[in-house]
């Protein structure tokens, strides 16, 4: 009878050990599933962030390219205006410069 009880006790211990092993394995599997899900969510967030940053970068590149074209056009207009101003001033004072040069060249020095 004592050996039956000892045998039954051993069987209970083995069953308890197997149940504990199943619990540990289930917990480990659940933990791995949560880690995998967290990793997938993090990768998704990273991809979304990268896409957002790329979109913002492309927008800024497009804006600066547009600004560059606008700057070139503005500089061309300013240059044309300055050239026109110089031509107008040169035409306005050219006769005075010619007269001054003639006077200087033709004056008699003693």
From TrEMBL:
InterPro entries on file: V-ATPase_G
Domain of life: Eukaryota
Protein name, as recorded: V-type proton ATPase subunit G
UniProt similarity note: Belongs to the V-ATPase G subunit family.
Coiled-coil zones: 25-59
Subunit and partners: V-ATPase is a heteromultimeric enzyme made up of two complexes: the ATP-hydrolytic V1 complex and the proton translocation V0 complex.
Keyword Signal among UniProt keywords: no
A GO term from the CC aspect: vacuolar proton-transporting V-type ATPase, V1 domain
Gene Ontology terms for molecular function: ATP hydrolysis activity; proton-transporting ATPase activity, rotational mechanism
Alphabetic keyword roster: Coiled coil, Hydrogen ion transport, Ion transport, Transport
Pfam families, alphabetized: V-ATPase_G
Endpoints of the signal sequence: none
Function: Subunit of the V1 complex of vacuolar(H+)-ATPase (V-ATPase), a multisubunit enzyme composed of a peripheral complex (V1) that hydrolyzes ATP and a membrane integral complex (V0) that translocates protons. V-ATPase is responsible for acidifying and maintaining the pH of intracellular compartments and in some cell types, is targeted to the plasma membrane, where it is responsible for acidifying the extracellular environment. Catalytic subunit of the peripheral V1 complex of vacuolar ATPase (V-ATPase). V-ATPase is responsible for acidifying a variety of intracellular compartments in eukaryotic cells.
